[in-house]
Amino acid sequence: MKQYKNVTIFDHPLIKHKVAILRDERTSMKEFRELIEEITTLMTFECLKEDVPTEERQVRTPLEVCTQQVIKDDSIVVVPILRAGLGMVNGVHVLFPTAKVGHIGLYRNEETLEPCEYYAKFPTGIEDKLVLIVDPMLATGGSACDAIQMLKKRGCKHIKFMAVIGAPEGVSRVAEAHPDVHIFVSTLDRCLNEKGYILPGLGDAGDRLFGTK
Prior knowledge:
The chain is of the alpha/beta class. The protein is built from six helices and 13 strands. Helix 4 links the parallel strand 9 (about 135-140) and strand 10. It is globular. About 35% of the residues are buried.
């Protein structure tokens, strides 16, 4: 795959270990859900380590008063792409428990493989926040591109996208369509099959998260 300045592919042994268990078809729904959250937390730490909005605050220790950097209140919004993206929200909240949550509902047309919108709900003032879009699978890139465009139309200027598993086709599509959006992927897989599923992948993330078929 072509190298893009706005794409980060993680290369961390702990994430690789967790992804290996995540892929296994024998992994239970409970363990799958926990692994998605754990991987998301590890990725969030790296994804937001450099440009989280901060401010100075005076803190009194048992010995004296000092100045500390703290994260600005109400500065981050997590936006899961329904439904599988819901599985990543708690992983972000481990590090940013006060982050507000928006929702984007998209489903894939099984004939065209293109996304169709059915729901959108965002916190007030989202255009001024750092927005983190989350979805476990970045396959064709259609849903990701549509979600990003929906947020840009609402005035959002600081957007990041985070996926657990990505296909080269989807990563390239989003990177080229939105060069101003940084894309974070824990693992880059081989390719898409004829139905638009990632190989080797992990199956349908939504089904495995929620116990549906």
